[in-house]
Amino acid sequence: MKLIYKVLSGIIIYVLFANTKVNAQGCVAISGKGAFTVMEHPMLDSTAAPGQESSWVFTSSYRYFHSYKHFKGTEEQKQRQTLHNEVVNFQNTIDLSLTRNFNRFWSVTVGLPYLINIRSSLYEHGGKERHRSYSNGIGDARVVAYRWLFDPRKVHSGNLQVGLGIKLPTGDYNYRSYFYNVTPSKRPVDQSIQLGDGGVGIIAEANGFLSLGGRFSGYTNLYYMSNPRNTNGTRTYRETLSAALANESIMSVPDQYLARVGVNYTFGGSLSALTASVGGRIEGIPPRDLIGKSDAFRRPGYIISGEPSLNYSFKKVNVFASVPIALKRNRQQSVTDQENSARTGTYVIGDAAFADYSINLGISFKF
Fold first, then answer.
1. Which residue from 54, 129, 144, 362 puts its CA 20 to 30 A from 103's CA?
2. Alpha-helical runs (H) found in 201-298
3. Sign of the C-alpha dihedral, residues 19, 20, 21, 22?
4. 3 state DSSP class of 335
5. In b/e form, how buried is each residue of 326-341, taking b as 16+ CB within 10 angstroms?
6. Pairwise CA distance, residues 279 & 252, whole Å
7. DSSP secondary structure string, 73-85?
8. How far apart are CA 328 and CA 335, in angstroms?
């Protein structure tokens, strides 16, 4: 038991206070502003005595990824690494959330991420020398209400939880860092490492599980965040690279989505259990938003990943980890790419840098 407590203490310290100093960061199609709120391991106590189902759950999670492989569509631009002009991104997100379970049906979660980003590139600094830009601070907060559709006391073979909430623009969407062209100057960092997007988002979720017999079960998490705001007014400076990019001079406020599905196998019993999972995952930014216009600059695209994960629960503690490994990466054509294609008569598509994998760690306490 002493070893378990030491391991847990180490994870808690790492997740809560991680401030990893890294060397670079790049132009990612998948934004990591802490907007994803999917409950990967909901703490549902169907054995609580009547009238005692209410509780609080504190969750701390950490996400890391390193992007450097550029894609146009599904084709990797391997020459970028050969020429050493690739853009490299390291991104660290620490997400803290507090859930109030009012009863065995209803709960509300409030979450706030903290981001630490470093970005290394040539083209943003005059094209001759590689320099870094930085951003760190709180991201966009969220408030989501959840309801289990079926009574956990009566239905044990499966259940579905639906959620609806809002994402608030608490993160700085005009964060500035130093750039080195002729002389050093401060200007907005790239969209991929901005702390927020400036929009009030509408969040919809569904989280479910289904018994498959024996120790096997299935799970699914579905998430979509709609950002009705069109643009946020933050300048990209892309028009200074080429006059043809005049329609990309301001940042767009894009939607985001995530879907997970997989199979669990559980070892152990009611007091403590280790669950091993394997599944698939897709996450991305669509070229066009569900609500409102989709003008100005964004890097739409998606990653399809295979996702192994582990979850260990005992008493009122839940520890979980997953490592999604990229199987397919696709940088899709944006609205501005389509506009430039129509204007020039040639097919235009921008590129984006993707990671090979991401690391997700977390711990929850019920009290």
1. 362
2. none
3. negative
4. helix
5. beebbbbbbbbbeebe
6. 32
7. BTEE-THHHHTT-
8. 22
Mean pLDDT (whole number) for 329-338: 97
Amino acid 365 reads F
**Among residues 64, 127, 130, 134, which one has the least CA distance to residue 92?**
64
C-alpha–C-alpha distance, residues 86 and 79, integer Å: 9
Residue with tokens 């400036």: 198
Q: Nearest Cα to 199, choosing from 176, 164, 171, 237?
A: 171
Half-sphere exposure of 77 (CA within 13 A, CB side): 20
Q: Give the CA distances from residue 218 to residues 147, 157, 211, 275, in Å, rounded to whole numbers and listed in that order.
A: 19, 10, 6, 12
Helix, strand counts (H, E) of the chain: 3, 19
State the Cα–Cα distance between residues 96 and 364, nearest whole angstrom: 10
What is the model's pTM?
0.88
Residues 121-149, mean pLDDT to the nearest whole number: 96
The answer to whether 136 and 99 are in contact (CB under 8 A) is no
Q: Each residue of 107-128: b (16+ CB within 10 Å) or e?
A: bebebbbbbbbbbbbbebbeee
Which residue's structure tokens are 């711990």? 363
Write the pLDDT tens digit of every residue in 262-283: 999 999 877 899 999 999 999 9
Q: Which domains does the chain have, with CATH numbers?
A: 2-366 (2.40.160.40)
Q: What would the pLDDT profile of 15-47 be if each residue is shown by its tens digit? A: 333 333 333 223 555 555 544 434 444 444 444
Contacts of 5 (CB under 8 A, 6+ apart): none
Question: Where is 17: in which H helix or E strand?
Answer: helix 2-17
* Alpha-carbon span 69 to 78, nearest angstrom: 7
The tokens for 358 are 């991401």
E-state strands within 199-287: 201-213, 216-226, 231-235, 250-252, 256-268, 272-285
Closest listed residue to residue 364, CA positions, set 298, 305, 320: 320
